[in-house]
Specification:
alpha/beta; 3 domains; 8-stranded mixed sheet; Endonuclease, Chain A; 36% helix; 747 residues; polyphosphate kinase like; 10-stranded mixed sheet
Length: 747
């Protein structure tokens, strides 16, 4: 089990303001002993959630998660947004809901079934949460489909993009689809009968299926059959070809794959009369539970669990709202699902399948094309084609902000240059998620084949990327890379890259510490931060952490890093408490946090205490937020904002005013139990005054009343603020950063 610092304060339950995570990072006067500091702090008598505040001081995380998807849906409902981007947001809502049911709802059902039905931090039992989810999720999905049918589809038709039915087609188009069915579909379709000789088939999770009722013309008996719609083919078939799809002056027609199959059921059931067919879709529990021990090979354990995942119990059944009640009753019975878990929706089901339409080359219907630029701190004169990452990093720490700063010419170039550089002796890299054609993986392989020492810490338990990560782990091993899987019982989620280079004055270490994955594809639409540095203290800390992950170093201590599961929560709370101390002493005090999720009760309570002491607290959160801002006597000094848009906000930043000497961290950790207790996470302190200013200015932009965002109220309701009193749209902060890289002035 990984442990952190071993000072006396770490050997016992930490006291307020006492937990000490390493000397320099906290900038404590070296002349002041720890005992002196305890006495001084205790005299201040910090507030401890004064007043009667019980479990209702927290918002329910499951409800908050669904409200996050409501915010995404509001983007799809925005008539001023680019049309195909609206369709894409509808698809994202569908994808997010799939994961919610597969993981969160499945987890609640498992807790209820096993009797571990304890109330949440918000005081709500799993049974009550399931009731709330059923009501909210039904409303959300119905609203999603109304937006699709009543707003997006008519708008698409005005742009000559039509989703049609078979009966809308002329003979020539039908003939082309007949040929498509014969050549592409018929060979891979497998009708499965249900009768005494054929039991009800297994329905795989997230697959789209047709429930078919056929009649024997001789006996008149009606029978049931299931037909899976192939998920290896485009869901929406272009009838008129790519030229029509990509030309604004031509009509582009699409038909759903299941509609084409439905019109050819007589070919699949010759000699039978097709009575009716209805599309349906099942969501299953697909969260992994891998029991680890020191003896069992983790790869083998995970591969076995991936096989078991396919047969998880159903947690949701989506059906067309025109389904025959008898057919629905059969599905409910055979799938052993509750009626409250049935979602009746207008066809087509599963709006994730709109990809072929979303990708249409219609520039006027998409966000303007974005070309990422090389960070000016890497290539300040912008005259050379590729920046020398090592030379730039030697001159100053480089703060990267993706996707505004190019990932390819910074992080990717850092590793590619390291692989090709004969002076580089070793490379160490964490990989949580990466792409199938990752240049990062290629660079590691190239370095290993060149004889360099290469260590890759592959997190094969990254949710829903497990199979891909297993393949890449084995590919790396075959190339001679030392592949390890971290610490038993913990996911390795930190984003670290370390390069050791032999230079004229000896060995020098360079590192990259990020908030996002080493994934070239997602780096184009995930908003993330990264630090390139050769600061001796930071790089030594990163070396220590890699040694802890790959070997046996349970007593590692860090001066410039906070590392979970030992010291991120306590370290951040220590900094929060110090802001309280500064406020009570009349010094400058302010706390700002940007993260994906804010759930951890200890962190939230520390922010409540700061608010009660009069400290200004700003929180920018993309998704779940269990913190309740603006409650008199508890959190009236806390503001919570959410920014959603073209890019997925993903960076994690923590700033503390620190009496006019700002202390700022960036890193991989969200404020959730899993991140702080069950993962290896790393936050690094930012030392450059220039980089600190950039991050503080970033918070000013995100929190500005002139910026479009959602505001969280004390009642737990999110309100969208995107227009001023005159009806003019507020500034889109992502567009502002795009323009800043183009050298444009803020409007």
């Amino acid at each position: 089990m990984m442990t952190g610092p071993t000072s006396a304060a770490n050997q016992q339950e930490p006291r307020p303001l006492v937990h000490h995570i390493g000397g320099d990072i906290n900038k404590i006067d070296r002349a002041e002993t720890q005992g002196d500091r305890i006495d001084r702090v205790e005299k201040i008598k910090l507030p401890h959630l004064a007043g009667e505040f019980g479990a209702d001081r927290f918002l329910d995380r499951e409800t908050s998660w669904l409200e996050f998807n409501t915010r995404v849906l509001e983007l799809a409902e925005d008539p001023d947004l680019y049309l195909l981007e609206r369709l894409n947001f509808l698809s994202i809502v569908g994808s997010n809901l799939d994961e919610f049911f597969m993981v969160r709802v499945a987890g609640l059902r498992r807790r209820i079934a096993t009797g571990i039905a304890v109330p949440s931090a918000a005081g709500i039992t799993p049974e009550e949460q399931m009731e709330d989810i059923a009501e909210s999720a039904h409303e959300l999905m119905e609203r999603q489909h109304r937006c699709f049918h009543e707003e997006v589809v008519p708008a698409l038709e005005k742009e000559q993009i039509r989703i049609v039915k078979w009966d809308d087609l002329e003979r020539e188009a039908r003939d082309r689809l007949h040929k498509y069915f014969d050549e592409e579909l018929f060979p891979i379709l497998t009708p499965l009968a249900v009768d005494p000789a054929h039991p009800f088939p297994y329905i795989s999770g997230l697959s789209l299926n047709l429930a078919v009722v056929v009649r024997n013309p001789k006996s008149g008996k009606e029978l049931f059959a299931r037909l899976k719609v192939p998920d290896t083919l485009d869901r929406m078939i272009s009838i008129d070809g790519s030229r029509a799809v990509n030309s604004p002056s031509r009509e582009a027609r699409f038909i759903a794959l299941e509609d084409v199959i439905a019109k050819h059921l007589d070919v699949l059931f010759p000699g039978m009369e097709v009575v009716e067919q209805h599309a349906f879709r099942v969501t299953r529990n697909e969260d992994l539970e891998v029991e680890e021990d020191d003896a069992e090979n983790l790869l083998q354990a995970l591969e076995k669990e991936l096989l078991r995942r396919r047969f998880g119990p159903p947690v949701r059944l989506e059906v067309e709202d025109t389904i025959n009640p008898n057919v629905l009753e059969l599905l409910i019975s055979e799938l052993r699902i509750e009626e409250s878990e049935v979602y009746k929706l207008p066809a087509p089901l599963d709006l994730r399948g709109m990809g072929a339409i979303v990708k249409a080359n219609r520039p006027a219907l998409h966000y303007p094309k974005h070309i990422a630029h090389t960070s000016r701190w890497l290539n300040e004169n912008e005259t050379s084609k590729a920046a020398n990452v090592f030379a730039a990093t030697r001159s100053h720490d480089v703060l990267l902000h993706h996707p505004y700063d190019s990932f390819a010419t910074s992080v990717q170039a850092f590793l590619e240059q390291a692989a090709a550089d004969p002076k580089v002796m070793a490379i160490k890299q964490t990989l949580y998620r990466t792409s199938g054609d990752s240049p990062i993986v290629d660079a590691l392989i190239e370095a290993a084949e060149a004889g360099k020492q290469v260590l890759a810490l592959v997190e094969i338990k990254a949710r829903f990327d497990e199979e891909a990560n297993i393949k890449w782990a084995r590919k790396l091993e075959r190339a001679g890379v030392h592949v390890v899987y971290g610490i038993v019982g913990l996911k390795t989620h930190c984003k670290l890259s370390l390069v050791v280079r032999k230079e004229s004055d000896g060995l020098r270490r360079y590192c990259h510490i990020g908030t996002g994955n080493y994934h070239p594809s997602t780096a184009r639409f995930y908003e993330d931060l990264g630090l390139l540095t050769c600061d001796p203290q930071i790089t030594e800390d990163v070396s220590r952490l890699f040694n802890q992950l790959s070997g046996y170093a349970p007593k590692s201590t860090y001066k410039s890093l906070l590392v979970a599961p030992r010291s991120i929560r306590s370290g951040l709370i220590d900094n929060v408490n110090r802001e309280i101390e500064h406020k009570l002493a009349g010094h400058e005090a302010k706390i700002q946090i940007k993260c994906n999720s804010m759930v951890d009760e200890a962190i939230i309570d520390s922010l409540y205490r700061a608010s009660q002491a009069g400290v200004e607290v700003n929180v920018v959160v993309r998704g779940i937020c269990a913190l309740r801002p603006g409650v008199p006597g508890l959190s009236e000094n806390i503001k919570v904002r959410s920014v959603l848009g073209r890019f997925l906000e993903h960076s994690r930043v923590f700033t503390f005013a620190n009496a006019g000497k700002p202390k700022i961290f960036i890193g991989s950790a969200d404020m959730m139990h899993r991140n702080l207790d069950r993962r290896v996470e790393a936050l690094t302190v930012i030392k450059s005054e220039q980089n600190k200013k950039y991050l503080l200015d970033m918070f000013d932009n995100y929190m500005s009343e002139k910026t479009a965002s959602w505001h969280l109220g004390s009642d737990g309701e999110w309100t969208r603020h995107f227009k001023d009193e005159a009806g003019k749209r507020l500034m889109d902060v992502q567009s502002f950063y795009l323009a800043s890289r183009e050298g444009k002035k803020r409007k």
